[in-house]
Write a structure and sequence with these properties.
It comes from Friedmanniella luteola. It holds the Pfam family ABC2_membrane_4. Keywords: Membrane, Transmembrane, Transmembrane helix. This is ABC-2 type transport system permease protein. The chain is an all-alpha fold and about 300 residues long. The chain has one domain. Helix content is about 65%, strand content about 0%. The chain contains 11 helices and 2 strands, in the order H-H-H-H-H-H-H-E-E-H-H-H-H. The protein has a two-stranded antiparallel ribbon. The longest helix is centred in the middle third of the chain and has 34 residues.
C-alpha cells in the first residue's frame, strides 16, 4: 500500500503584507493631515471667538431674562423663572432656528473653500497625502469643531440654568412633575438628541464649501437653507416632506418630556440625519475627486 504525503501549503504568508502596509500608511497620512487641520483651526480667531461665545452667551442670556417677563409664547419660556432646567430647553429651542447651522458652518463652510481662495490645493497635494486623506482629515476636523462648540454651549446652558435659577422640579409637556435628578438627565438627553442635526448641517456645509469654492456661500448657505427648512416645516399639508427635512428632528426631544415617553421621532430623525450626512459627504467627495486642482 502506497502512502501519499500531503504537500504543505505553498501560499506566501506575506502576500497580504503590502496591503497591510498600505493601510497603515493611509491611516498615518490621515492622522497627520487631521492633526495639522486642527492646528490651523486652533490658530483662527473666529474659532476661538466661537468657543468663547458658546461659553459666555448662555449666562448672559439667563441674567437678561431674569429681569424680564418670561416669554410665554415659546416652549418652556413661561417656566424659566420656576425651574433652572427649563432654561436650557428654552435655549435649545432658540438655537434651532439659525444658530445651529451657523455654529458649524463657520468652519465647515470654509474648510475646503479657503484652499481655493488661497490657491493652496497644489501645495497640499505635494505633501504625500491623497485627496481622500485630505477629505477625511478636513471632514474630521470640521466635525471635531462642531462637537466641541456644541458641547461647550450645552454645558454652559445647563450650568447657567442650574446655578442662576436653581434645581427646582421641572414640569413636563403633559403637566407631570419631574424631579431634579430626572430632569437633569432628560435635559442632557434633549441636547444630545439634537446633535445628529448638527452633524447633518456640518456635512451640508462641507458640500457647499467643496461645490461653490466660495467661503461666504459655504458659511451663509447652510444658515439660509436651515431657515428655509424651518419655514417649510411649519407649513401644513406636507407631512411626508416635513419628515425628510433636516430641521424636523430638532423637535424630536419633545417626546422625552411627556409622562409616557415616545421615541419614534428620535429614531426617524436619526435616520434622516444619517441620510443627509451620507449623501452630502458622498457628493462632496466625488466633486473633490473629479476636480482639476493642478491650478491651485
Amino acid at each position: 500500500m502506497t502512502t501519499t504525503a500531503t504537500e504543505p501549503s505553498t501560499a506566501n504568508p506575506d502576500s497580504s503584507r503590502p496591503r497591510r502596509v498600505a493601510a497603515k500608511l493611509q491611516r498615518a497620512g490621515t492622522r497627520t493631515a487631521y492633526h495639522w487641520e486642527l492646528v490651523k483651526l486652533a490658530a483662527l480667531i473666529r474659532v476661538r471667538a466661537m468657543i468663547i461665545g458658546c461659553l459666555i452667551a448662555p449666562p448672559i442670556i439667563v441674567l437678561i431674562l431674569r429681569g424680564q417677563r418670561p416669554p410665554a409664547d415659546t416652549l418652556y419660556g413661561k417656566l424659566i423663572h420656576l425651574s433652572g432646567f427649563a432654561v436650557p430647553l428654552l435655549l435649545l429651542g432658540f438655537i434651532s432656528q439659525w444658530v445651529l447651522p451657523l455654529l458649524t458652518s463657520l468652519v465647515a463652510g470654509d474648510i475646503f473653500a479657503s484652499e481655493d481662495q488661497q490657491g493652496t490645493w497644489k501645495t497640499i497635494l505635494t505633501r504625500s497625502v491623497s485627496r481622500a486623506q485630505i477629505f477625511r482629515a478636513k471632514t474630521l476636523a470640521a466635525l471635531t469643531f462642531a462637537a466641541v462648540a456644541y458641547s461647550a454651549l450645552a454645558v454652559s446652558a445647563i450650568a447657567s440654568g442650574v446655578l442662576l435659577v436653581g434645581r427646582q422640579p421641572l414640569t413636563g409637556l403633559t403637566g407631570q412633575t419631574i424631579t431634579p435628578s430626572t430632569a437633569l438627565g432628560l435635559v442632557i438627553a434633549a441636547w444630545a438628541a439634537a446633535f445628529p442635526v448638527l452633524i447633518g448641517f456640518t456635512a451640508l456645509s462641507i458640500l457647499l464649501s467643496v461645490r461653490t469654492r466660495n467661503p461666504a456661500l459655504g458659511v451663509v448657505g447652510p444658515v439660509v437653507l436651515g431657515l428655509a427648512m424651518s419655514l417649510l416645516g411649519s407649513v401644513g399639508g406636507i407631512g411626508l416632506l416635513r419628515r425628510l427635512l433636516l430641521t424636523t428632528p430638532l423637535d424630536a426631544w419633545h417626546g422625552l418630556l411627556t409622562a409616557t415617553p415616545f421615541y419614534g421621532p428620535l429614531v426617524q430623525g436619526l435616520a434622516v440625519c444619517a441620510a443627509w450626512t451620507a449623501l452630502c459627504l458622498v457628493l462632496a467627495y466625488r466633486s473633490l475627486r473629479n476636480r482639476d486642482l493642478t491650478e491651485g
